[in-house]
Structure formats: C-alpha cells, structure tokens
C-alpha cells in the first residue's frame, strides 16, 4: 500500500471562456484646408499664391499618413506572419511525436505533466498504472511515475521524472533539436536521501537547453528565466509535500481521499476495497510522520495557506501569470500540484482562505482554451 502514497486527485473543471484581442489600425484624417482656402482669392494669381503652399502641405500630410499607415500595416502583418510561422513550426514539431504517459491520475507529479501537455496541445495516450502491482511499467527499471514514452520516427525514448519530462519536451518545441540529443543533457545520478535511501536524481532538470537567441525569444531576459526555475523547484521541493498532510489530515479526510483514489485509479474490486480502508488508515498515520519530517505546523492548513499566498505575492498584481500574459512552466507546475486536491475539503478551504483562486482559474482557462 506504500506504493499508493503518491496517488492524489483529479483534472480541473473545464471553463468555456474566450479571449478576443483584435488590434486596430488608425487612418490619418486628411485636411481639406488647402482646397477650401483658395476659393476666396481675387484672381488666378492670388489663387496660385495662396492655394499653392496649402496644396503642398496637404499633399505632404497625405503622403506622410500613407507612409505611416504602410509601415504600420507592414509591421503588423509581419508580426502576424512570425507568430503563424512559430505556431506552424511548433505544430509540425509536436506532430512528429507520439506520446504515452504512464501515470497515477491522482499523483501531483503526473498532474504537472498533464497540465504541460494539455497547455501545449500535445496529444498523448494515458496508461493508468496499478499502484500496487505496477505491472504496466514492468518494462522500466525506473519504477516511479510519471514516465513518458516518446516515439519520434524510428526512435523510441523514455523520459523519467516530471520536471525532466517537461524541460526536455519544452526544449524540443522551442529549439527543434532531436529529442535523443536533448535527453543526454539530463543525466540520471544516484544519490542517498535524508533517510539513507538510494534515489535517482537528474541533473539540470529545471533548465531548458536553448541557445542565446531562443532563450531571449522565450524569456526576454535572464531574470524571467531564473524566476521560472526557482518556482518550479519550489513546487517540487516544498509545495508538493504539503498535499498529503492536508488531504489525509483527519480520518474522515483520509477516507474521502482514498475513496476518490480508488474510483479514479486502476484497482481490482478486492484491491479497491482494501485500498480504501487500509490505505486511508495507513496514510492518516503516515501523514503525521510527513508533518514532522517537513517541520509543518500542528494545523497543516496554515502551511498550505501560507504557500499559496506566497505564490500569489510572487506573481504580483501587474501580470496575470508569472509568465506574463500566458502561463510559464512555473505557473503550470504550481497549478498541476494544487489541482490534485480538487473535490476535497483541503481544496475548498484553500480557495476560501487564500488569494489564489483568481490566478488558479486563469490558468485553468488558459489550459482549457489551448488549441486541440
């Protein structure tokens, strides 16, 4: 039953909002003074003297307006062409990949990957792994989820670890490098954790392997790149560890959580019944141990609320997302982690007692409206 520890919650609710941004081009109004002023002259000479300069001024104004309009329209159309070119390139790149995600639906790390794939409109198949037997991933020496198998032409690649999966696929979409080459930038490394257990870590997992021009196009500056990496790591190192203590906080919450896990997971009938009651009891006590390990407060909700408000403060009031006008990888990671609590008491409390709901709904909307 310990293998089910990382299994947690569902997809976000779909919203049917739409955005409509339509730039407008303005036309300069042409002055008619040069034409009407000549009517008051006393003869052909007067008309030429008075009307000539005015006609020249009107012609210059008209010519300047036409040139301004031409360059504005040219810039606008060129920017549209570049956006379409990038979209077509990304679509072309993504169409070369066949993705299969091995997951527990209610695992926060798996939810992060789904949020990324859905936002970038990458089609993928899902294989729900039985958290007890894990027969679905018996082909892999890496025994955790998520795992993404990527077919690119004749090449079949296995991506492990949620942050590596996201970084490698984003690097691929931006740079177009062969995925087999990109994977070599994230080598696995054996390490011993605080509990003395050997674990696999991955180098560079929050770093996108881009050249200077690609990084500039994507981020605009080093500060944005550093900020994204910092908060992606925060989601893995801190936020995700607040989930279990909060959803298993009381015996009733633990039972409700496992009831959902059993409904959404790949369990047999007998396994499901055992998981619901034995798993709920086990996780209630394990959550207490996790609370001590991570030095959480007696009321773990306070740590959850503080984390949510810290994130909202980091995003700030002047931008809808940490990524600016659209979610970046940090937005998607934090959203993916929190989404697994939807439908549970902990999630409802989070929305009521923090300032995170507007941002959360904006990310949900951005993912829902991603072109499919």
From TrEMBL:
The keyword Isomerase applies. One of its GO terms (biological process) is cyclooxygenase pathway. InterPro entries: Glutathione-S-Trfase_C_sf, Glutathione_S-Trfase, Glutathione_S-Trfase_N, PGES2, PGES2_C, Thioredoxin-like_sf. One of its GO terms (cellular component) is Golgi membrane. Its EC number is 5.3.99.3. It is an enzyme of class 5 (isomerase). Keywords: Cytoplasm, Fatty acid biosynthesis, Fatty acid metabolism, Isomerase, Lipid biosynthesis, Lipid metabolism, Membrane, Prostaglandin biosynthesis, Prostaglandin metabolism, Transmembrane, Transmembrane helix. Pathway: Lipid metabolism; prostaglandin biosynthesis. The keyword Lipid metabolism applies. Pfam families: GST_N_3. It is a single-pass membrane protein. Residues 101-169 form the GST N-terminal domain. SUPFAM superfamilies: GST C-terminal domain-like (SSF47616), Thioredoxin-like (SSF52833). One of its GO terms (molecular function) is DNA binding. It is found in: Cytoplasm; Endomembrane system. It comes from the Eukaryota. PANTHER family: MICROSOMAL PROSTAGLANDIN E SYNTHASE-2, PROSTAGLANDIN E SYNTHASE 2. Belongs to the GST superfamily. This is Prostaglandin E synthase 2. The gene is PTGES2.
């Amino acid at each position: 039953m310990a293998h089910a520890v990382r299994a947690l919650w569902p997809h976000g609710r779909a919203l049917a909002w739409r955005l409509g941004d339509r730039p407008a081009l303005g036309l300069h109004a042409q002055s008619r003074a040069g034409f009407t002023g000549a009517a008051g002259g006393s003869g052909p000479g007067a008309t030429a003297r008075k009307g000539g300069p005015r006609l020249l001024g009107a012609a210059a104004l008209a010519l300047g307006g036409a040139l301004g309009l031409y360059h504005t329209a040219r810039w606008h159309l060129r920017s549209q062409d570049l956006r379409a070119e990038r979209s077509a390139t990304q679509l072309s790149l993504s169409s070369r990949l066949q993705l299969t995600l091995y997951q527990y639906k209610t695992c926060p790390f798996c939810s992060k990957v789904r949020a990324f794939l859905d936002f970038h409109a990458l089609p993928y198949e899902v294989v729900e792994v039985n958290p007890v037997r894990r027969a679905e991933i018996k082909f892999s020496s890496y025994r955790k989820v998520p795992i993404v198998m990527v077919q690119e032409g004749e090449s079949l690649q296995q991506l492990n670890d949620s942050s590596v999966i996201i970084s490698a696929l984003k690097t691929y979409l931006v740079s177009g490098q062969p995925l087999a080459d990109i994977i070599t930038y994230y080598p696995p490394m054996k390490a011993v954790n605080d509990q003395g257990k050997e674990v696999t870590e991955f180098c560079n997992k929050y770093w996108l392997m881009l050249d200077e021009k690609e990084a500039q196009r994507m981020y605009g500056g080093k500060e944005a790149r550093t900020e994204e990496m910092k908060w992606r790591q925060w989601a893995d190192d801190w936020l995700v560890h607040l989930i279990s203590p909060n959803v298993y906080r009381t015996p009733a919450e633990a039972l409700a959580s496992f009831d959902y896990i059993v409904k959404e997971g790949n369990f047999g009938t007998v396994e499901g019944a055992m998981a619901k009651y034995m798993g709920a009891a086990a996780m209630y006590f394990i959550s207490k141990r996790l609370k001590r390990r991570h030095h959480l407060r007696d009321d773990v909700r306070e740590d959850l609320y503080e984390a949510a408000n810290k994130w909202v403060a980091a995003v700030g009031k002047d931008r809808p997302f940490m990524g600016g006008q659209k979610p970046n990888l940090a937005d998607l990671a934090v959203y993916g982690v929190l989404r697994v609590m939807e439908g549970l008491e902990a999630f409802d409390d989070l929305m009521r007692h923090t300032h995170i709901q507007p941002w959360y709904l904006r990310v949900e909307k951005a993912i829902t409206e991603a072109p499919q």
